[in-house]
Amino acid sequence: MSPGALAPPHAALARLAMARLADYFVVVAFAHGKRGSGDGQGQILQRFPEKDWEDNPFPQGIELFCQPSGWQLFSERNPPTFFIAVLTDINSERHYCACFTFWEAVESSQLQNHLRNEEEEGEVAALIQPAQLFAPKSLVLVSRLDHAEVFRNCLGLVYTIFVDGLNASLETVIGSLLTCTIPITGGAQPDTEDEGARTISLGAGDRQVIQTPINDSLPISNCSVALLFRQLGITNVLCLFCAALTEHKILFLSSSYQRLTDACRALLALLFPLKYSFTYVPILPAQLLEVLTTPTPFIIGVSSIFQAETQELLDVIIADLDGGTVTVPECIHISLLPEPLLHQTREALSMVLDPELEIADLAFPPSPTISASSLKMQDKEIRAVFLRLFAQLLQGYRWCLHIIRIHPEPVIRFHKAAFLGQRGLVEDDFLPKVLEGMAFAGFVTERGPPYRDIDLFDELVANEAKRMQADEGSRARVLRHIKELAEHLYKNENPYPAVTMHKVQKPTEGCHLRLHQRPFPRLDEGTIQWIVDQATAKLQTAPPLVKAEKKCMVPSGPPLGAIMDRNGIILANSARRLEVVRNCISYVFESKMLEAKKLLPAVLRAMKSRAARHCLTQELNLHVQQNRAVLDHQQFDFIVRMMNCCLQDCSASDEHGVAAALLPLVTAFCRKLSPGITQFAYSCVQEHLVWTNIQFWEAMFYSDVQNHIRALYLEGIEDEGENHVEKASEEGPPQEEKSALEIAAEQCRLWPTVSREKQQELIQKEESTVFSQAIHYANRMSYLLLPLDTSKNRLLRGSGLGDAESVSNSFITNSIAGSVADSYDTESGFEDAESSDVANYVVRFINRFVDKVCTESGVTNEHLKGLHVMIPDIVQMHIETLDAVQRESKRLPPIQKPKLLRPSLLMGEESVMEGLRVYLMPDGREEASGGTGGGPPLLPAEGAIFLTTYRVIFKGTPTDPLVGEQVVVRSFPIASLTKEEKITVQAQADQFITEGCAQLQLRSCTFQLLRIAFDEEVASESAETFRKHLNKLRYPQQASDTFAFTVGHLSKAALQPKAKEKNPSLRTISRNLVKNAKRTIGRQYVTRKKYTPPPWEARGNQQHFLEDNEDEISVSEDVDRSTLTPSTTIRPSDKMTMSHLVERACCRDYQRLGLGTLSNSLTRSKNEPFRISTVNRMYAICRSYPGLLIVPQSIQDNAIQRISRCYRQNRFPVVCWRNSRTKAVLLRSGGLHGKGVAGLFKSQNAPATGPSQADSTSLEQEKYLQAVINSMPHYADSGGRNTLSGFTSAHMSSADSSEKRQPKLGSLMKQVMGGKDEGPLSRGALGHRGRLITLSSPKSLASKGHLSPRGKWGSIRASGRMSSYALNMEVGSRLAGKELLSTQANGSPSEASFLRQHRASLYIIGDKSQLRGVKPDPLQHWEVVPIEVFDARQVKTSFKKLMKACVPGNPSAEPGQTYLRSLEESEWLIQIHKILQISVLVVELLDTGSSVLVSLEDGWDITTQVVSLVQLLSDPYYRTMEGFRLLVEKEWLSFGHRFSHRGAQTLASQSSGFTPIFLQFLDCVHQIHLQFPMEFEFSQYYLKFLSYHSVSSRFRTFLLDSDYERLELGLLYEEKGERKGPQLFRSIWDYLDRLNKKTPAFFNYMYAPEDGEVLRPYSNVSNLKVWDYYTQETLSEGPSYDWELVQSQADPVEEAAQPDTSAPQSRRKIVWPCYDNRSRTEPDAISRLLEELQNLEMELGQVPERWKDLWDKAKASQRSEVQADPSGRVAAGSLLMASSLSHQRRSFGVYLQESGRGSSTINLSLDNDSSSASTPSSGKQGGRRSTSTLYSQFQTAESENRSYEGTLYKKGAFMKPWKPRWFVLDKTKHQLRYYDSRLDLECKGVIDLAEVESITPGTPTMGAPKMVEEKAFFDVKTTKRVYYFCAQDVQLAQQWIDRIQSCLSDA
């Protein structure tokens, strides 16, 4: 009988309790090698049994392993060696080969053969024959059990019997060795009959006890682990441990084979509970060294003889056991354990291996030093450390197991992503690699089943988790736990230490050296075989000993979440956040959309946290009924947005299970698109990588299958009615429900007891469950993988979906095909190919998934085939439904958008285009979009854009729901539009903008920018229409089409063609009039800039000039008389016209200045130097001048005609202002004609035109200028010409005179002209002036100035022309007669005395380029000051840049810096500096008595600016409202500033662009206002108002280019009767007057002018501020300059019922910088008081008093109080209004800014009879203030500390009456204060209690209050004076005395 037949089958080995100790016994000997190999080789001499066991075939290649370093002959006899090699067979079973090797002498015959062979091969034979050679011989035991010591003993015994010749048969010993069976696992103590089983004897008088482990799943390590640590150290072993876990190649080197085996065994023991499943060869024979180059991981040991061969291995980690080193190649990165586990493991290992480390530093170490544990024990302690490590690493792993089949065999999968997610180690380097590894897969297979034996590791994971967590901090407790575990492990290896007595004979010492030793005998096969057969037969008859199975349900342990709360792995998530998520979802489902919208951003932000994402899925789950939830469109949109946000933070592996939780929801939420067509949420959440991750789908599938299988068995249980009724009826808490693993365990336990049919039925049920899930998932996957628009190749976007080669290849080709289709031609049916491409792709993806999961979960092949057929149909069907959904979703009405808000319109303003829905995008201004300043983002806003006849208006609400209630308004007048362009906003800028929608950027010169994106619902045609209308309205055909004219006439606009029939006769006359005027002007008018007025249409309401010869005033002598219509004289019926002319502003002003009057008869009074000339009344001489002009008395009208030709645009010099003190006059004119226009003059070959030209016109011109000079009184006084004629330039430039007088004015002049300091002048003034000039010329005034095409007006270049230098020097030197009183670094001229006779009488400020080559003439009395000025073009460019700086189109990275940089580049402030500088110079000249003629460019831009500023600075009248109006009307309107042209108001002027000359002037006024806030009657708001409406075209005031044009349109003189209705607002001045009566908005409360003061502002750029008009905006109401609109919006201000100051009231108002109108939400104190008074009057039913009257009263009472209080103790601020401040206040630079914005709050009380104000300002009268008054200055009455208060009578100072005052006792400040009344906020006086000496009862004095008892009087004596008080009665008096006394005693 063959032995194999009796052997138990291999599969049953595990179940049987007993196993053979050894399977084979082999004798291997040295055999001489084949020819050609120097070495010999091994040869099996005998093996027993000779036939293979059936369950265990004989392993091949044993002979190689007996001598791993090769079979060789030795010259001496070595002692016997023993080691164990491990062979792994094809079934990955390990065979332990115990090799016992000894040496035998070689027989000489063999040796001879050996040597002969070698000689034949040509090798040199050894000359000397060796005496004796020894060959190795090995005895090998092959076993599947690893009992090293037993094997050593058994083979030793065989050797001993052979060597020592014991009387025992070798055959018997070997036979019994092969038949010996031992229990596989131990357990109970050995009892008597068991004794034999454990104690073995081989029949040679020996006795061995085999310690079989209690539990064979735990590895046996003896001391190997401890030895490994001893050899390599902690760090190295940890490194190897991690390398083995992460599947690296590991090679051990040692010269000892046994050590190699031990090291490998130790490493495997450390890996428990994972099992190493790659190549494992503890001892690798030399012949097999090429195994080391294998690509798979391995653990191999190699003898260190071969160290050299291992050097070139690049990817192998080499551990040298003998040297104690571990070498890691550069190319390998070993992932180490995650912290804190790594640190904890290191610490624990050092406690075990080096227990003395902790006490090494102690001064008195404890006497019995800690004995290191025995090696064996230390070994177990180290293993315990690693066991704990694995328990912590794999904690909670059973909660991530999915059981997908229970019968016939459990199939279990592990959810890696969830496991990593719960631990927060998704990004970790180490754990994911371990989970991906083979060892872990084996771990899941082995330990996954829920019903099996359990071991130490299972118990540790299940029961010790909490303990391990608790022990973490304490080393002692950790050590204690380690020792406990080590005990377990030790006990497992050595179950019964008592019976370890072996009795095995050993050979005598040195027996191997015996000389005559017989060789090992040949054994008798028959005997051994017979012994084996006997034993086998016996086994057959005996009943098999089956191992008692101790199976049980594997405990799962606590879930991970319960343990992982530490070190912040679970993000701390405040309950508040989750509350927000819940609320938002409930709002959505309750359709409270506005509320939901507010919370949505917070919810989307919260989605960053895991808890919030889980909360979202749970909440959404609650709203799904029967797997379906139909939503309306808006709800659907919200839910989809939340889902997308939730998914975008999930990684593709979905480690937190959020996508898994959402998967059932995306197929549940839907909306009805149309009958029968429903769109589900999945079509909107496809753009996430997680859906393309096949592992995600597998995990989901398995989890669902597990749930269904669980349900399958739960149902079965409930059907059987096993008391599960209650559970079914009421849901118990989840922990009572059985988990799937528990149910599976239960089923596994019952399985053997179930009948065969039942088993089959269960298997079938499970299989069909899995199959139905597979179909379900095929559907689900097609839902999420097929895009809504299947023509888009969404999935082919390189997301690396394909795991398999084939897929990734096809994947690439598909995408290439797709791109080819897109880029070349789509005519050849590519489109279909496209969509089917997607379909094919999805089908392949699903097929791959189905194959994998179905084979794993045991679905039958038929079912699998069925699935493959089904999948393409599923996909195709889904594509078809998607097409319908997509079609419908396109037709879907857009989500209900907010209602369009209609803007309020002005009277007469009419809508041109109804609102188009748009989004207002944020621009570069930070505040509105919640930028740096914080605050909610008001932009982007959604609303509509409206176009009216007057404005472009955006009105809407912010898209940010947190500010959704606010209304955002941005608007600007159409007339102010400067640029309209199409833009493209970056797509990421906003989620609202759909691609392809029109986007416009509209920029306005009121500093407004509208970046709008039209909503998709607005057709592109509408957007185009909008643009066309806008352009048409912006540039009307002529001025008469602008809003100011058409207001209220829109209905008539349709009738315009009929206008031709209007009164033809009048038309003709007017036309003739204008034609004649044109003819007259014709010749002189041809200048380089051709000026063409817009076409003129008669309105029929102007006056017509009819003939009348009443008064002959000659107009011109050399003009053809016939050219003037109809006669050259003023007609008698023209009194009307003349009186109108006289009424004009300029005339009123001339009369005020005493520059001449017009009597009825128009006779001149000869004694006046100037007269009013009517020469231009027909606008024939100069069309851009007014009708009446001031000219010198002596000049005849006919001369004027000739003079006017020398000047551009015929604008000859006329007087516009006279200094009342010095009588110097200011003249203005256009520049002189340049050489290029010489043809216009009579003498063709004349030299350059200039004042010295000898031509007759020039003579006239000189005569004219001389007449101006003669008109000046000081000139006449000092005797005509002589004054200046003697002063030649040589005399003037002499060094001494200029050195004596440092020329302040000269320096100013130099700055203006930019002269270099050269010649004698500079020597004289170097000290002061050098500094002054440097400081006052900012760098752009240096020679590189940026502002002019020529020599840039910052400097005069030395162009080699001496003439201009001489001129400069002379001008400078003539001006040098002025002492420098103080050089103020600020560039402001100080007061100065001057020598009049050193001064020219008339300075002509001209443009340098025009005056080139003009020779200075010492005989003239005028001086030419050439300056470089910038032209209109430069202003235009500069303004463009300024707009871009203040209102940038795009946000920049560093808004602050960009703003300042672009502001500087714009050079706007430099231009303002220049204008102010020139103006101050002119003011200086006028103030010192010289007249000035400003003659720049055409005389209507810079000239106007300078002339107006000069008047404003010199004459306080112009700083009043009335005066300023007059100034603008006179200088800007009458003198023909071309508003229409410069403002590009009509089609004709469109090309010239917007040039804000007037705005620049207003900015200059604003700069002066800032520096002199008390000198102007009007506020800054007034200037802004004018700036806005100067471009708005709302009023006719600033519309046309000259009075002539206004006359043409009949605007100049309107009949008195016409002023009603909307006519009233044709003029901005009327409008301002009306408004000013109603409200003090335009009034400056700080107005307290000095009499006749001349202002000299600082003009350096450093002193200029950017006007807030450019940067401010009010989004709540739009610009506040259309007063009616703002008023209609203003909410009624809530007022307190009664203003009770004693109780502090906090009404918190939030004022947003760019949203609220600050001056209205927080009015300044005075406005507020006026408002309160008005409200009170209304309440009392009185007619409210005008605010101005109130104000004047208040001021009057203020003055009287100032005069009445001689002691000067009035609060400093009251002087503000009393205007008794000395002049020095100017130099303090105290800027009190515009009301409501400034730093100074003005508290003004209008109570009782007095009022006062306090402003923080220094240097006022009233002496040094005490600290307490300073203290009180910054505290309002409400927040003061009032300990006790009430009314007392106080007697004033000597001879003053008794007055009741409100007293406040303040303990905090230790003072007694008094006020006029209880409501008074201003303290009237303070008694410091520190100074009080005594309080005594007083006596009534004269004038004391009557009816008061005597005892109510008391006196308070201080160190300074005595105060007399009287209370209303005795009790009150007593109370006051007590209170004051207690304060004193407290102190």
Spell out the blueprint of helices and strands.
Layout: H1 3-6, H2 10-13, E1 18-20, E2 24-31, E3 41-48, H3 62-66, E4 81-88, E5 94-105, H4 108-120, E6 134-143, H5 148-164, H6 170-179, E7 181-183, H7 192-198, E8 199-200, E9 208-209, H8 224-232, H9 234-245, E10 249-254, H10 257-271, E11 279-281, E12 298-303, H11 307-310, E13 316-320, E14 325-327, H12 341-353, H13 375-393, E15 401-405, E16 411-414, H14 416-423, H15 431-436, H16 438-447, E17 451-452, H17 456-463, H18 465-471, H19 475-493, H20 525-541, E18 552-553, H21 560-563, H22 575-589, H23 593-606, H24 610-622, E19 629-631, H25 633-648, H26 658-666, E20 669-674, E21 677-680, H27 694-719, H28 725-729, H29 740-750, H30 756-785, H31 805-823, H32 830-856, H33 861-891, E22 911-920, E23 941-948, E24 951-958, E25 968-973, E26 977-982, E27 999-1004, E28 1008-1014, H34 1020-1034, H35 1043-1046, H36 1050-1053, H37 1064-1082, H38 1135-1143, H39 1145-1153, E29 1170-1173, E30 1189-1192, H40 1197-1203, E31 1214-1218, E32 1225-1229, H41 1256-1270, H42 1273-1277, H43 1282-1285, H44 1289-1292, H45 1295-1300, H46 1304-1313, H47 1319-1336, H48 1362-1374, ...
Helix pairs in contact: 5-6, 6-20, 8-10, 8-13, 12-13, 13-19, 22-23, 22-24, 23-25, 24-26, 27-30, 30-32, 30-33, 31-32, 32-33, 46-47, 46-48, 46-51, 49-50, 51-52, 51-55, 52-53, 52-55, 55-56
Q: Stretches where pLDDT falls below 50 for ≥5 residues?
A: 1-15, 121-128, 187-197, 562-572, 721-735, 793-834, 1050-1070, 1077-1134, 1160-1164, 1235-1254, 1276-1303, 1316-1397, ...
Shape call: elongated
Number of separate helices = 66
Sheet having the most strands = 7 strands, antiparallel
Kindly, what is the distance between the CA atoms of the first and last residues, rounded to a whole number of angstroms?
123 Å
Nearest-integer average pLDDT: 74
Q: Structural class of the helix and strand makeup?
A: alpha+beta
Tell me which oligomeric state these chains represent.
single chain
Strand arrangement across the biggest beta sheet = 25-24-23-22-28-27-26
Total strands: the figure is 42
Helix coverage percent: 25-40%
Strand content bin: 5-15%
Radius of gyration: 55 Å
